[in-house]
Specification:
The chain has 481 residues and is of the alpha/beta class. It has 2 domains: 231 residues, Rossmann fold; 206 residues, NAD(P)-binding Rossmann-like Domain (Rossmann fold), CATH 3.40.50. It has 18 helices and 16 strands. The chain has an 8-stranded mixed sheet, with helices on both faces. The two termini are 47 Å apart.
């Protein structure tokens, strides 16, 4: 990057940053894979981001304030589910293209590009908590030099990039956004457990605060994805990310209401959805015991807050969120009602919970509906035992070492996560281990009602009403919540 010397009146020489040369220099380093990149936040978004840019040939510094996390990554011990990441981390560290630190100041000192991947949770009152983001921006802004590109990957409310982030960086650096440095929002699209694939294959949306910011960030992400990279403004990118997960929330809520209806009128919701989805313009998701994970429970709240700021009540979004939040209570009602119906003796029932992770194949229990289910049936007086082959979280219940131990002497088994291990369970062995009469409450609809019933067990399926239900073909519904 270059400086030119101006002679002002009075003979004082001052250095003025020359934007055009600096911008060309930045684009050149991006396109030649020689830019120095810093990634702030090494969670389920940040670490894949860091290693994939390192794998593309860039020199990357990953920074996270959690020293124990940095040590774990160096030791190949990852506290999140990314089965494809181990070799990438090992290669990046071995080649020296990835270095790790806990110091934001050190990591940003020589960086051409800073990518922020910190968490942006909501409070108990469902309000956005941008503390991690603003703290990171305060620190990186102090060391921000002219000619840099800052990219926010964290999910944020509308206007955050162009207003909140830009103002913090300008104030801390005494530089002008869009002139001295460039700023863009590139929201992550990475499901835990499949992050590497989705980062490199899916379409990405890049929103700059100005055209140059959009161009630089678009050029950057084209280096690491085979998917299309769509350029837009930062606010449009922010709302688009929230809209993606809010659409899923609304779709799931509709499926859940269909499930409640089918239970009342004696139908099978899976069959109803299968028939509806045979229409080429219909794609109803699967119902379930609630929604979990880092995105679907949170993002609708950010969109609702944006509506409130604009004096608009997003009633559909708010109602969908409420429906999904009430599903764990409905699952408990199914358990209690069935227990009364089969006439189990008084005493402390043993209830086995299969699955505390929020979705199949991962160990993440964030916002898992299992929490509410377990807490309520513990309060009911049950002896609750959980088993999850991926997740260590128990939400206060006892944890079994294996499936057999969890099921033994249980009067009720509740399936809350559709892990493959549960799909393949030996029902004959399950029956022999359980007390009689025994109930299986299948909130994910992964078992055959007819087969369970033939074995003398009581089958209760979410969205399955009383009545004659012929054997049906498996229905592969969208089910990642």
């Amino acid at each position: 990057m270059s400086l030119r010397t101006d002679i002002r009146e009075g003979g004082a020489a001052v250095h003025v940053f020359e934007e055009s040369n600096a911008y060309s220099h930045l684009l050149g380093r991006i396109r030649a894979n020689t830019a120095q990149i810093t990634v702030i936040g090494l969670g389920h978004v940040g670490l894949p981001t860091a290693v994939l840019f390192a794998d593309a040939g860039y020199s990357v510094v990953g920074v996270d304030a959690r020293e124990e996390l940095v040590r774990a990554i160096v030791s190949s011990k990852y506290p999140f589910d990314e089965p494809a990441i181990e070799n990438l981390v090992e290669k990046a560290l071995r080649t020296g293209r990835l270095r790790l630190t806990t110091s934001v100041a050190e990591a940003t000192k020589l960086a051409d590009i800073i990518i922020v991947c910190v968490q942006t949770p909501v409070t108990e009152a469902r309000q956005p908590d941008l503390t991690y983001l603003t703290d990171a921006c305060e620190m990186l802004g102090s060391g921000l030099a002219p000619g840099r590109l800052v990219v926010i990957e964290s999910t944020v409310p509308p206007g955050t990039t162009g207003n909140v982030v830009a103002k913090i960086l300008e104030k801390r650096s005494n530089l002008k956004c869009g002139t001295d440095f460039w700023l863009a929002h590139c929201p992550e699209r990475m499901a835990p457990g499949n992050g590497i694939y989705e980062f490199t294959k899916m379409t990405r949306v890049v929103g700059g605060v100005d055209e140059r910011s959009s161009q630089a960030a678009t050029d950057l992400f084209r280096k690491v994805t085979q998917g299309e990279v769509i350029s837009t403004g930062s606010a449009s990118a922010e709302v688009a990310k929230l809209a993606e997960n809010t659409f899923r929330s609304v779709n799931i809520a509709f499926a859940n209401e269909l499930a409640l209806l089918c239970e009342r009128v004696g139908l099978d919701v899976i069959e109803v959805i299968r028939l509806a989805n045979s229409h080429p313009r219909v794609n109803i998701h699967a119902p379930g015991p609630g929604v979990g994970g880092p995105c679907i429970p949170k993002d609708p709240s950010l969109l609702i807050r944006a509506g409130e700021d604009a004096r608009l009540d997003l009633r559909l979004v708010r109602t969908a969120r409420l429906i999904n939040e009430q599903m764990p209570e409905h699952v408990c009602e199914l358990i209690f009602r069935t227990w009364d119906r089969i006439g189990r003796e008084n005493g402390k029932p043993k209830v086995c919970i299969l699955g505390t992770a929020y979705k199949a194949g991962v160990g993440n229990a964030r916002y898992s509906p299992a929490k509410k289910v377990i807490e309520e049936i513990v309060q009911w007086g049950a002896d609750v035992v959980v088993y999850d082959p991926y997740c260590q979280e128990t939400f206060g219940a006892r944890r079994a070492a294996n499936l057999s131990e969890a099921v033994k002497d249980a009067g009720c088994v509740v399936i809350l996560t559709d892990h493959d291990e549960y799909r393949k369970v030996d029902l004959n062995a399950l029956r022999e281990l359980m007390r009689r009469p025994a109930v299986i409450v299948d909130t994910k609809r992964i078992l055959s009602p007819a087969e369970v019933t033939r074995l003398g067990l009581v089958y209760v399926g979410l969205g399955l009403g009383d009545g004659d239900h012929p054997e049906r073909e498996d229905c592969d519904l969208p089910y990642d919540h």
